[in-house]
Amino acid sequence: MGPWVHELSGRMSLKRFDIITEADARVLDPGSTVILAPRGHVTPLAADTLRERRVTVISDDPGTAALDLVPVADVRRLAIASDHSGVALKRTLVAWARARGLAVEDLGVEDATPVDYPDVAARVARAVAKREADAGIVIDGAGLGSAIAANKVAGVRAAMCVNETLARYAREHNGANVLTLGATLISPDEAVCIAARFIETPMREARYIARLAKIARLERS
Description:
Low-confidence stretches: none
Oligomer: single chain
Radius of gyration: 19 Å
Strand order of the largest sheet: 5-4-6-8-7
CATH architecture of the largest domain: 3-Layer(aba) Sandwich
Number of strands: 8
CATH superfamily of the largest domain: Sugar-phosphate isomerase, RpiB/LacA/LacB
Largest sheet: 5 strands, parallel
C-alpha cells in the first residue's frame, strides 16, 4: 500500500478490496470511501451499485485517485487576471507575487474597458486545470461571479475569500486551487494577506483529501 493511501486508511479505517462484487457493494455504507488494490477489479453490477450508494473508490495505484487532486503545496507559478473593476488590485498582487519570487502569468485586463468576468475567470481556471500554473487568482467586483465561473472548469476548485481564515480553510479543508477576490470588498493590504495565506497553506490531512475524490465524481455526474 502506498504511503499516502496507508495514512488515509489508518486515519479513516477504510476497507480495502482486491475485487468489489455486487454483494460487497450492497453492504457498504452509503457515502463511504473504500480502497481498491493495484490491478483490483470492480464488477459491472458492483459499479452500478456503488454509484447508487454514492460510495467513493480510491485506487491504491501510485500517482492516481485523490492524491492527484491535491493542490500544489509549494506554489511557484501563479496565474492572475481581473475584470475592469479589479485592475488596480491585480497590479498590486502581481507586483507582490513577483517580489516573492513567483513566476506570474498576468492574463489581463489592463484598463477600465468593461469585460465579462466569466472570460477572465476562464483564463485563470484553464491555466490551473492544464497545470500551466500551480494556483490562480481572479478578481472582479465581489469575487462571487468569478468563483462560479471558474468552478465550471473541471479540476478547478475556486473559493471567494474575504479574510485569511477563509483562505486557510479553502486550501487546507477544501483543496482550493483558485482564489477569487472582490475588489470592492477588501483593501490592497487585505488582499495581499489573503493571497499569502492561500498560497502558503498546504492540504495534508488525509480525511480532507479523500473528499476531493467525491468532488471530482460530482464533476463527472
